[in-house]
Amino acid sequence: MGLNEKPLSTLHEKASYDLADFDVPTGREEAWRFTPLSRLKGLHNGKAEATGQLVVQAWTPSGVSAEWVGREDPRIGRAYVPADRVSAQAYNAFEKALVITVPKEATPEDHIKVELRGGGADGASYGHIVVVVEPLAQAVVVIEHQGSAVYADNIEFVVGDGASLKVVSLQDWEDDAVHVSHHHAQLAKDATFRSFVVTLGGDLVRLSPSVSYTGPGGDADLAGVYFVDAGQHLEHRLLVDHSQPHCKSNVDYRGALQGEDAHAVWIGDVIIRVEAEGTDTYELNRNLILTDGARADSVPNLEILTGEVAGAGHASTSGRLDDEHIFYLQARGIPFDEARRLVIRGFLGQLIERIEIDEIRERVMGAVEAELAR
User: Fold this and answer.
1) Considering 150, 197, 200, 245, which has the largest number of Cβ atoms within 10 A of its Cβ?
2) CA–CA distance, 137 with 277 (Å, rounded to integer)
3) For 143-154, what is the mean pLDDT?
4) What's the Cα-to-Cα distance from 263 to each of 2, 36, 275, 291, 352, rounded to whole Å?
5) Distances in Å between the alpha carbon of 175 and those of 148, 205, 233, 341?
6) Which residue, among 131, 256, 147, has the nearest Cα to 195 in the 3D structure?
7) Torsion over CA: 367, 234, 54, 102 (sign)
8) What gap in Å lies between CA 159 and CA 137, rounded to an integer?
9) Sequence-ordered list of residues with C-beta below 8 angstroms from that of 61, at least 6 positions apart, any chain
């Protein structure tokens, strides 16, 4: 297939299934200017051979199906068209796609779990997952990434009329892992989508969540927490494309950084098209820089093409710990190191508490505690 007729936005002008439609990035492009291409291990230029050892397993509750299909399956690529070269490379290189279907009006008692575990960073792996939640159904999906890998993939979330989907995506890779991923949610009329991204591990992780609407009344909430250590590059690039009237979106990502050359990148793009009257949207990114040598780049963008909006705003802050908060706790007899941990824990914990699955929430808080203890 050739170029998609409808550009994603003026900041994401190209969408295509065809790898040849994308030039090899040089780092001068707006979409790639923050990403250290030399650390992608060939995912961006076609030199990454598909010889990686990555195992994908899925556990589904009763009534929910999980099947492996070829790319000729009509459900593949229905909701998402690759928006950059790595995404197109992943789309053209995967062997089998995992399709999970929650049938109409179903409300599974337990969550769906997908585990991806890498066995080494010597070769690359490519993947594709589709989650279909049919009309009026409800589901919770947990996607966990562990081990060591060089991995590029696309995940499609297709949420039907009046359906609800909650997703927790955990990037807990080993220190040498490279992961470039696109998560796209397509919301039908009155659909609800809740996403929570946790990114902790990996040498370089670049995750691009995006949302589009096919009917009015859609409601998307995108939250994320990341902790960046010395030498790590963790990048989150979000796009919410409002093309239907009376839809909502809310974005809230928070990160903490410590150590030399710790680098966090957050890009938040929201476009409100002419036909998207009554849109209500807000995006927020906050970063705590805990040590010298760490760097946070945060760029919120709004493209508003109609004057008939219910609300539209964005905010971004990056800074040190608040001395007043630390002083307040120390004045009550709490030692400095413990006061510091309490402030950071509270900063990230406000979002982490929104994870509804107890075992995942406790695991994430434990991982944050381990980071703070370093």
Assistant:
1) 150
2) 27
3) 97
4) 35, 10, 38, 12, 21
5) 8, 11, 11, 23
6) 131
7) positive
8) 9
9) 108, 109, 110, 111, 112
Beta bridge partners, 348, equal none
Domain-by-domain residue ranges, the chain? 19-320, 322-374
Rounded (5°) CA angle 67-355-116 = 35
Asked if 352 contacts 365 with a C-beta cutoff of 8 angstroms, the reply is yes
Taking only the tens place, the pLDDT of each residue in 47-69 is 988 999 999 999 999 999 999 99
**Pairing state of beta strands 97-102 and 65-69?**
antiparallel
Enter the tokens of residue 195: 């996403």
Q: How far apart are CA 194 and CA 168, in angstroms?
A: 9
User: Taking the CB of residue 28, how many other CB atoms lie within 10 A of it?
Assistant: 7
User: Nearest-5° angle of CA 137, CA 140, CA 143?
Assistant: 135
* 138-159/65-69 β-pairing: unpaired
**Residues forming a β-bridge with 97:** 69
- Are 79 and 186 within 8 A, CB to CB? yes
H/E element holding 352? helix 336-352
The residues, ordered by sequence, that sit 6+ positions from 218 with a Cβ below 8 Å of its Cβ are: 187, 188, 189, 190, 191, 192, 193, 244, 247, 248
Q: What is the band of 326 on the pLDDT scale with cuts at 50, 70, 90?
A: low
| Token reading at 115 | 């585990």
Residue 141, token pair as written in the block:
């999906």
Check whether 6 has a pLDDT greater than 70. Answer: no
How remote is the C-alpha of 287 from its chain's centroid?
A: 17
What is the Cα–Cα distance from 187 to 213, expressed in whole angstroms?
Answer: 5
Is the confidence at residue 356, as pLDDT, over 70? yes
Cβ-contact 230, 200 below 8 angstroms: no
Q: What are phi and psi of 326, to 5 degrees?
A: -65, -45
**How far apart are the C-alpha atoms of 104 and 288, rounded to whole Å?**
43
| Residue found by looking up tokens 């780092």 in the block | 27
Q: Are 249 and 281 in contact (CB under 8 A)?
A: yes
Residue 122 has pLDDT above 50, yes or no: yes
